[in-house]
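Fill in residues.
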């Protein structure tokens, strides 16, 4: 049985990705995120659908504990065959470290974003990549907003600078390990997930992840589904009003 580990697992896209891999490939699902209660609720949903799932709470900014959580998932399930990395900020996070425009960017504003989007990803991959290389098989998928490269969104420069670092590294990593059986992909999402637009629904977007895993022909997937009159605003789950 194969296992997907979803780091930054949430009840929308994270749950949809786990469901997709379970339904299409019979995968077990390892869930990694900060909030243990939310993870346990997701585990209950998976188990009620007949999917083998387990929670491994960890904060991606605590790189040592993140590695321990993934090691525990490997021990529990036997291996991690697919790693998906997509932590997202909460309202509390945004209050503590608000989004900053390109003209106002400071070192202090970008460092926390690097911890979450980039350094945590490096730590997670370093934990699971050796096993994938030893087995000669595996998939690593990192998710970011499309401002990581395909789109220019100056209103969120601190987040996008960190996401761009993630994107650059994943593309280089794919070049480095493709001949050893490991496929690495970056998925850039220009969409407001769960907004009601058909192509922005979690289940639809989750298809991109399954495609990346099974087709293994593209190091980057750009999914754009924003309205023609789109103007930057926070996704609903991050809005105080």
């Amino acid at each position: 049985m194969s296992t997907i580990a979803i780091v930054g697992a949430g009840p929308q896209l994270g749950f949809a990705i786990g469901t997709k891999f379970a339904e299409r490939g019979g995968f077990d699902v390892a869930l990694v995120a900060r909030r243990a209660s939310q993870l346990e609720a997701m585990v209950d949903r998976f188990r009620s659908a007949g999917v083998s799932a387990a929670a491994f709470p960890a904060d991606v900014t605590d790189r040592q504990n993140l590695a321990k959580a993934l090691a525990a998932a490997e021990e529990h399930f036997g291996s991690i065959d697919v790693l998906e990395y997509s932590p997202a900020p909460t309202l509390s996070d945004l209050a503590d470290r608000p989004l900053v425009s390109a003209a106002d960017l400071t070192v202090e504003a970008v460092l926390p974003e690097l911890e979450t989007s980039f350094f945590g990803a490096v730590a997670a991959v370093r934990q699971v990549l050796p096993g994938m290389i030893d087995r000669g098989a595996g998939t690593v998928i990192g998710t970011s907003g499309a401002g990581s490269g395909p789109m220019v969104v100056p209103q969120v420069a601190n987040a996008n600078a960190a996401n761009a670092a993630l994107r650059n590294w994943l593309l280089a990593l794919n070049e480095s390990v493709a001949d050893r059986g490991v496929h690495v992909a970056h998925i850039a999402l220009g969409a407001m997930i769960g907004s009601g637009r058909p192509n922005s629904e979690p289940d639809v977007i989750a298809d991109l992840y399954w495609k990346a895993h099974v087709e293994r022909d593209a190091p980057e997937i750009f999914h754009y589904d924003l309205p023609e009159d789109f103007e930057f605003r926070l996704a609903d789950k991050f809005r105080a009003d």
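Residues 73 and 235 are 31 Å apart (CA to CA).
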